[in-house]
Amino acid sequence: MQFELETQTNTPSPSGFQKLPAELRLKIYAYLFTTYRIEIVRKKDKKTNGTKKPRYRLYNKRLRPREDKSQGNTERAGRWWLKRLPMALIFTCRSIYSDTILLLYANTQFVFTTTNAITRFIKITPADAQASIRHVELKHIMYNEPRLTEFRIYKARSDMAFYLACEDMALAFKSLRVLHVDMRIYDWPIRLEIGELWSLPLLFFGGEGGTGTKLDEANVRLRMVMFSDETLRRVARDLEQRMMGAVKFQVREDERLARELHMLGRKAKVLRLVM
Length: 275
Prior knowledge:
Residues 49-71 are annotated as: Disordered. By secondary structure, this protein is an alpha/beta fold. 40% of the residues lie in helices and 16% in strands. The protein has helices at 22-32, 87-90, 94-106, 115-124, 127-131, 152-172, 229-244, 246-274, and strands at residues 36-44, 56-63, 108-112, 135-141, 178-184, 217-223. Mean pLDDT is 85; it is low at 1-7.
């Protein structure tokens, strides 16, 4: 008698959830993956020994997410519920990982406060994940003007590093739609005009460079002790218009004006009821 050997495979059969159409799975994932906001921090590795050279790693700090419509200030009063990142679901299996990893990056608001953190993040993050990022916040403090000429090389290195980091972000983050910038300017002498060295890194975003796609929302805050607040706001608005385009910028301003008028109308109704 001849027996046929049965070939056994170790590949597990897909579950009932994985057999669902991709459209249904994405709708289910949408209930699990909400908006997250994290700050990417570059610190020394905590597990390194004292004899070895310390290595730097990226860590994350959970922050209060911004509202999708208004993109307003997050430092408002009141409690907020800190939702955990669904990392256990993402690493369940390869199939679910492929379905959810890009959703995590797309729904996360990334905050960068140092140039080294930006460079390291772009270096170790997969290209597909970078292409799905839609929300970025930059907080940058420029190097001060040195008193001695021999120390000016350090300022040039710092400015060039931030310039290259912004260029890499504009090219890698192909789905970027929202950008918040908080920048302290220490170049001098300057006229605070778009086109000067301090503004060149920001011009990579939007239609000026990168993917060539205009942003849906750009919020720029400039800080400089040598200029008035009115001048800083005017130049910041010009930068926002360059990043968003004239049409999107005007639509954004009209929506803001409509919200302000609506709030004034609600306050007037409350005053009438009290009187």
